[in-house]
Amino acid sequence: MNARINPFRGTGIALVTPFTLQNEVDYPALKRLVNHCIDGGVDFLVALGTTAETATLTSDEKQRVVAAVCDAAAGRVPVVQGVGGNDSAKVAAELKAGLQLGISGVLSVSPYYNKPTQEGIYRHFIHISAATDLPIILYNVPGRTGSNMAVETTLRIAHEVPHAVAIKEASGNLEQAMTIVLGAPEGFDVLSGDDNLTLPLVACGAHGVISVSGQAFPKTFSQMVRDARAGSLDAAQVGHYAMLGFTQQLFAEGNPGGIKSALAHLGIIHPALRLPLWPVSPQLDAALAQSVHKLQQHEL
């Protein structure tokens, strides 16, 4: 009997890392953001993902950010830590060294830039999975890594690694995601990695999402996911279409510039980013301000 259970279902949030106008990590803003998300009904949080601008954080900042997220969450929802890279030995060493107390799982991206073969991707995850007992969420995002993790590779890992519990599937390929749903062992779930594909994916058997846009409007987004998972698709469509245009705007000039602009209009953070990222254009910022106002009215 397969005892594997994925504890990360529903709405997960890929948190941004707020910065001050002096480009330091803004820990009070991070606490506000965590409380905003939890008060809005999300199910779990992800620290140090792509949206967190993790590549620009020092080792000390990474530790402090994760500790701050765990402290602010205070056990109310699970916290997942992003731990990935394109050096398998280095990722395994980081996992063996131990993660922040309070972390419930790991999100690990398929190796980027190197463009490994499918066998290399498989071997990477087998190698790093031996370095931790924590539940692992695989992460396939070919638009950033330069290589797609094939269905066969995902399922091979899912069947061979007992503590691999899900994949954040951000290929944008619905057929690929559905084929994983069909072939996955019990306890291994698909989580949407594309906010605007969450409703159709959940309707096809996915069990949630790791969302960017949901941190701006967690109440609307998490209710949409709950409705979809309950089979109330008419109700889920209300939230889906309320968020659709806003989410398209968020990614129009790259992530996390869009979501940081939106969160700034909500008064939660400053819109500061670290180079090489740059804030969104004045035109998009103005459009996001309008969308934020409209969605605020929707939530009343």
Uncertain regions spanning at least 5 consecutive residues: none
| CA(first)-CA(last) distance | 47 Å
Query: How would you characterize the largest beta sheet?
Result: 8 strands, parallel, barrel
Beta content:
5-15%
Question: Which CATH class is shown?
Answer: Alpha Beta
User: What is the total tally of β strands?
Assistant: 8
Structural class: alpha/beta
Radius of gyration: 18 Å
- The CATH homologous superfamily is called Aldolase class I
CATH topology (fold) name:
TIM Barrel
* CATH architectural label: Alpha-Beta Barrel
Helix content: 40-55%
**Average of per-residue pLDDT values:** 96
The number of domains is 1
Helices and strands, in N-to-C order?
A: EHEHEHEHEHHEHEHEHHHH
Structural commentary:
- It is built from twelve helices and eight strands.
- The protein is α/β, with parallel strands linked by helices and 300 residues long.
- An eight-stranded parallel beta barrel has the order 1-2-3-4-5-6-7-8, surrounded by five helices.
- The longest helix is centred in the C-terminal third of the chain and has 18 residues, at 233-250.
